[in-house]
């Protein structure tokens, strides 16, 4: 991580930091689901005027959360536990500011906490990826067209053809 934001996908750092939390602060607590392990998945880069932020789903034994990490300088400054609304094609969602050693500032939106309804990591993963897909559907169920490139930007071929990132 740079001092202000992540240049590259933060998934390895998320996995390392939350694996450490699971082995220390959260070890042995009754709200842990023993069928779940730490896994960051569902990479998305949210486009902003200055680049984009990193969206991930994080599965941990005690919860499943959407996480946003700063990917550009236009990250909203907020202290711990302050709220910020983020707009997605499916609607507005409230995220809570947090900070973690090895990661720095991030924002989270709780999906399941605790996460006892999952019998396996595969079940949790499938649900998490379905939530991520639904987040990017408009209320009418359609996938929005990709945003036009900013002036001077060459669009990726897949995005230009409407095939995604």
Please specify the SSE layout and strand pairing.
Elements: H1 11-23, E1 39-48, E2 51-60, E3 63-69, E4 83-88, E5 91-100, E6 104-112, H2 121-135, H3 157-160
What is the molecular shape? globular
**SSE pattern, N- to C-terminal:** HEEEEEEHH
Q: What's the CATH class, please?
A: Alpha Beta
The total number of structural domains is 1
Q: What would you say the CATH architecture is? A: 2-Layer Sandwich
Instruction: Please state the average pLDDT score.
Output: 81
Strand content: 25-35%
The strand line-up of the biggest sheet is 1-2-3-6-5-4
C-alpha-based Rg, rounded: 16 Å
Q: Provide a count of the helices.
A: 3
Instruction: Write down the CATH topology.
Output: Yope Regulator, Chain: A
Total beta-strand segments: 6
Features:
165 residues, alpha+beta, Yope Regulator, Chain: A, 6-stranded antiparallel β-sheet, 6 strands, disordered C terminus
Question: What would a concise description of this structure say?
Answer:
This protein has three helices and six strands; from the N terminus they run αββββββαα. By secondary structure, it is α+β, with helices and mostly antiparallel strands.
